[in-house]
MFS transporter (Microbacterium hominis), 498 residues
Amino acid sequence: MARIPKQTASQADGVEYRRARTWEIAFSQLNNGSAMIFYVLVGLMSYLQNAGYGIAVAVAGVILTVTRVFDGVIDPLLGLIIEKVRFRFGKLRFFMLVGWAIRSLAILMLFVWGSDAGLGAAFFIALYVVYIIGSSMNDIAGQMSGPVLTNDPRQRPTVQVWATVYAYLIPSIFTIISTVVFLPRHGNEFTVAMLSETALTYVACSFVFQVLACIGVARVDKPESFAHISVTREKAEVTVRDMWNVLAHNGSFQRYLISGASDKLAQVVRSQAVIGTLMWGILLGNMQLGTVLSLVAILPGIIFAIFGARYTGKHGSKAATVTWTWICLILAAVMAAFCLLVDLRAVLGSLALTIPFFLVYLLLNGASMVVTVANGAMRADVIDSELDRSGKFLPATVTATYNIVDQVISSLGSTLALGAVALIGFTTVMPQPTDSPNTAILMMTMVLFFGLPILGWICTLIAMRGYKLDRTEMIEVQKRVAGRKAEQAEVEPIANLS
């Protein structure tokens, strides 16, 4: 008996989806890989500020926080410029490469040519602002590539899988390179020479990733990929009003923002070094455990991401978000209860406690990965729904508007974490792994490490109750968009002949 071939998404849904080749998706998301290399370099900025520019540690933290807010402000302006620009060959490669060139030049000026030259804080701040402009330009263009490459609901989540794999692996690899290769060559000290050598090598590697990313988007990087529908030539001009219109009138985008912002705040607070000190160093008594767990979690995290892409492709981004948010919430509640009921200092000394602790923690990390994959697909759905709603294709606008919230939340994360530890007595000194655990530390750690994420997931579930872009609705959205594009294609040749 002959095997019946499995239907494609286009056949099953009655929509002619555009699809990308697997290698195109993999290459295109190397833009995120390139960005992750710079992310590792930015992590070394505090050492650079002190060793290369004589900036005090406390002042360095303020500079990085304030400039992060500037990052959120500049994003919508750059997004608007990217939307307005029309090139004969497209726009993704142009802004990806120009953004890379600007951020690379700024990094080389900061780490190599300007470091240890007595140029001071003003020079550092000015070049770091230039870096932020190039970084934002490159990131927005790179994040636009997914919605442009494919609108196939089964394929779209795989874009986020590749982005997530690079986000996990590349920082880990390059952090290891800096600490295992470069640091020992300079006496295990973060000297100006060590930072300079690291920056030169990393910028060269990022260029390779950037070129591959441009190859990945080359086929779709053309003007027709960014065309609006059912609007006149005059109304096709993108303005600040369009950005406000998306934020004020696209209900799906509003709910997506609420979901993303609440999850982001919990993620940023939990990732603060001081919170890691409370959890791993003081309560569990092993400061290195957090780092080891993050490395161990990479492989199962990738497996969960691949599974999450298949689940999201089959059930839609809304269903995947709701289902796996519930799973995250339950697992986090179990972890919190476990930590409150047992003596955490005894966990690592008892196999009966160690196994359930590690197992539930890795499951929670994996379930969170599925939510992340669904979140990436959801942003692409929102972009297509806006095309259906207003007739304008605004990937840069949606991305940049989301980035405003992302940057503001990220800048608040450290403030919230430091304020929380101050409430339990750490007002003049920071928590150290050698500190003794007590009830106040335990309760505050549970609130920040598990309670805040649980609150974020509850906000997500509430927001998703009114989110309309489920699997069925997205099929209808794609049908309406395809129909209007077909009508426009019939009208434009007639207009050209008249």
Summary: The chain has two domains: 20-222, 241-485. The first helix runs from residue 9 to 13. The CA atoms of residues 262 and 455 lie 8 Å apart.
